[in-house]
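Homework-ish question, so no full write-ups if that breaks the rules, but can someone show me the predicted structure for this set?
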Amino acid sequence: DTAVSQTPKYLVTQMGNDKSIKCEQNLGHDTMYWYKQDSKKFLKIMFSYNNKELIINETVPNRFSPKSPDKAHLNLHINSLELGDSAVYFCASSQPGTGDIQYFGAGTRLSVL
Amino acid sequence: AQTVTQSQPEMSVQEAETVTLSCTYDTSESDYYLFWYKQPPSRQMILVIRQEAYKQQNATENRFSVNFQKAAKSFSLKISDSQLGDAAMYFCAYRAGSPSGGGADGLTFGKGTHLIIQP
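A: Not a homework solution, just the prediction itself:
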């Protein structure tokens, strides 16, 4: 069983569209994250949620909205997609107090045309 | 703000040889965690090794070991007996925290080092 799974793996869409990326973890972790990896491979934290509560919201356009229906899921909705949103988006999870190791999903490559 | 610097965009090593990847970081915190993650072409992020700042002993995981110099804020990764499967991007990462863990801080990553293994 995959510990942190993201769907879809690839997403190709037109500018101006709205899209969602789903993330689920079966590790029983309380904390989940979204990271963005740009074309130069640089990874940056976007959001973190602890037990369904938003903890970190880095400088991200408000077109990006995370939603956590329960602590095993953290979805990322993106409105009015722009060319600069093209990137790989990673979901991760961790459990505070157990070494703080973050486990990553396989990533979603978003291409905005 | 914390920063992580990897000064080697690319490194190349012969199979079976040893290679060291460098990482420095800047922080005003006294307690934190440091990590090395590997990203092969499959793009999966794989944890290689983790170091707690309050521990003086350097972490080791089989062929992977670190040289953690807290005063110098240096955290290098040594890969011994390099194998073809070690070829990947390697990212150094930092997370503030206490020894007991907790919180939901994200990782601060360096820009990565592309490791090439020559057969």
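Now go work out the reasoning yourself. Hint: Chain B has no helices and twelve strands.
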